[in-house]
Specification:
The chain is α/β, with parallel strands linked by helices. It has 6 helices and 5 strands. It is globular, with a radius of gyration of 17 Å.
């Protein structure tokens, strides 16, 4: 395979432990407080572990020739796949996913840093995510056994990323 480009001074990305977290969230036109909440925690992240949000346009629901939920999910899955970076570790968030404490989440982050692969978190829309996306995920993760509004998931995920990274750094925020 192709070799990974090296950074200045010959230090590879893996050696530095830099990982980018990308949040792919179906939905747009969220209330201002959702963006403010997400941005508050994203800006607190260390430079070596940035968090970026990319909104995925939801499938159009309703109207003449109404499509099925499976067709909506398939359309959204196609948009999500198109936005996924190559070679990233894929985490699909779902209430039926693996439960995870903050300490467990911190251990995941530590492994991701060691592996040097960027991580993409997928937050589905109103109807969740397509089964195919869940089956091809590297990790199917639950933030809570509760069903959370997908906008609120953005904030909870950003806060938990910050909390877990703080825990790894030995800060009292945990």
């Amino acid at each position: 395979g192709a070799s990974r480009p090296r950074r200045r001074g010959g230090a590879s990305r893996v050696a530095r432990g830099n990982v980018k977290f990308l949040v792919l969230a179906v939905g747009h036109k969220m209330p201002n407080w959702i963006g403010a909440g997400f941005n508050e925690y994203a800006r607190r992240m260390p430079r070596a572990l940035p968090v970026e949000l990319k909104e995925i346009k939801p499938a159009v629901r309703g109207g003449a020739g109404d499509k099925t939920v499976l067709q909506w999910l398939a359309a959204e899955a196609e948009r999500i796949r198109a936005a996924l970076p190559a070679q990233c570790f894929r985490v699909v968030l779902d209430e039926r996913g693996k439960p995870c404490s903050t300490s467990d989440f911190a251990r995941h982050i530590e492994r991701w840093k060691q592996n040097g692969r960027d991580v993409a978190f997928v937050i589905g829309g109103a109807d969740g995510t397509a089964r195919e996306l869940q089956q091809h995920a590297d990790l199917l993760l639950s933030l809570s056994p509760l069903t959370l509004p997908h906008g609120l998931c953005r904030i909870v995920l950003a806060e938990q990323l910050y909390r877990a990274v703080s825990l790894l750094a030995g800060h009292p925020y945990h």
